[in-house]
Amino acid sequence: MKNSEEKIFEITKSEQWHLDHPGKLSPVYSNMQTVERNGRKCYRFDFPNTLSDYTVGVLKETRFTEIPFHYHTDMEMNYIYSGSCTFVINGKEVTMTQGDICILDADVVHHAAYKEASDIVFNIVFTKAFFKAKFVNWIGKQGLLGKFIVSAISESHSHDKYLIFHTAPSKQELFASNRLESVLDLLIQEHFYPSLYSGELLEHYLSIVFLLLIHSITTDAEEYFRDNKENQIIVTVLDYLEKNYYKDSCRLQNIADTLHFSESHLYQLIKKGTGITFSQLKIKQQMLQAALLLKTTNLPVLSIAEEVGCKNRTYFYEKFKEVYQMTPAEYRGEDQG
């Protein structure tokens, strides 16, 4: 990384202290608050200075020592820049290697093993409000197909209040992986060489990282569903719905015929895979599109209803309120109040 590689591997004062006092706990811990969790003393890591002015901060984790069991008052992302590191998170041992990322919620107890000179780990700390506004809300804005894929794939990433992303790329994902690494490099460089707009840049870089992680989840779908035929069928149905939801011909029988299933069998597969029926999924897709048009266009409500395939005004208003707990007019004016 331009201008930063030497800085990244430079021995810090804290690391030099540990080299001079092997096996000893840093004096810094004597001033930290502790709590007992599951019969174990845990340190409380707080970052009042790091997050005093901005919602994102960056720290390089100290090498040549273990990081004892602790928890953070804010959320954090551990990024393995180089080498590897073994963590114990909620009692489970997790080894991460170069390029891997772990997002931990506040209050998750974890421990980091001893790191050698080549093991570089960055802690990117951020507020819970920032994470919700970016990562969680962006996932919530996915269409039916995107939401289903994110939900299904994220089961393999998520644990008890933490998410792990092994970003070693396949051939297909090499470009996306390189983009993620490049953005993280920019974020780290901004940390070491701050500019006038560092706070804003760190927030924007981390926002892009979140988007690329969401992208990595959704593009894992083909690999994840390779041995899961039922989920492959659900993906086909949801793709059909997203492309045809506004048409009168968008019916369960038609997609069942295309897939060579009986209507009743496909009905059961959809209900099992999504928790709701084909008709309910169609309504959700219609209302998702209607909500988008309400926010992004000046089309009259009745025109939007027709656009999404709802010819009956009363039916449209009823279904929209069921989904969003407000009328279309209230939804459109929500951001203006």
From TrEMBL:
<protein>
    <recommendedName>
        <fullName>HTH araC/xylS-type domain-containing protein</fullName>
    </recommendedName>
</protein>
<dbReference type="Pfam" id="PF12833">
    <property type="entry name" value="HTH_18"/>
</dbReference>
<dbReference type="GO" id="GO:0003700">
    <property type="term" value="F:DNA-binding transcription factor activity"/>
</dbReference>
<keyword id="KW-0238">DNA-binding</keyword>
<dbReference type="InterPro" id="IPR014710">
    <property type="entry name" value="RmlC-like_jellyroll"/>
</dbReference>
<dbReference type="Pfam" id="PF07883">
    <property type="entry name" value="Cupin_2"/>
</dbReference>
<dbReference type="InterPro" id="IPR018060">
    <property type="entry name" value="HTH_AraC"/>
</dbReference>
<dbReference type="InterPro" id="IPR013096">
    <property type="entry name" value="Cupin_2"/>
</dbReference>
<keyword id="KW-0804">Transcription</keyword>
<dbReference type="GO" id="GO:0043565">
    <property type="term" value="F:sequence-specific DNA binding"/>
</dbReference>
<dbReference type="InterPro" id="IPR009057">
    <property type="entry name" value="Homeodomain-like_sf"/>
</dbReference>
<keyword id="KW-0805">Transcription regulation</keyword>
<feature type="domain" description="HTH araC/xylS-type">
    <location>
        <begin position="235"/>
        <end position="334"/>
    </location>
</feature>
<dbReference type="InterPro" id="IPR037923">
    <property type="entry name" value="HTH-like"/>
</dbReference>
